[in-house]
Amino acid sequence: MVGLVIVSHSWKIAEGVKDLALQMTPGYDSIIAAGGLADKEIGTDAMLIKDAIIKANNGDGVVILADLGSGIMSAETAIDLLEEDIPVKLADAPIVEGAIAAAVEAATGGSIDDVAAEAEDARTVNKL
User: What average pLDDT is seen over the chain?
Assistant: First the structure.
């Protein structure tokens, strides 16, 4: 099953998005929040994200959703730091809607490509 990593500058946002996505996917638990710095201050940390990728990986790879530009850069650095051969995709997706769409697809057994595509498709969903 594909795992998800939620990257936010805020620990609270990452945890909240994780909790919301888990509520929508009973039985799926492969979402790891990688928000903030080690002391829960605002920021991103490539090493925390790297550890989250490793924890989220169940053998089918990991999709990462990030909130802002430097979160993307930290996620890219984390991918470069991986010593294990883990398939990872960084989704160009809204963090909340994308995480829920990705979690639903992952929970139903979607491939890493399908999970990333569902997250990215969330960009086009109208709310009204």
Answer: 96
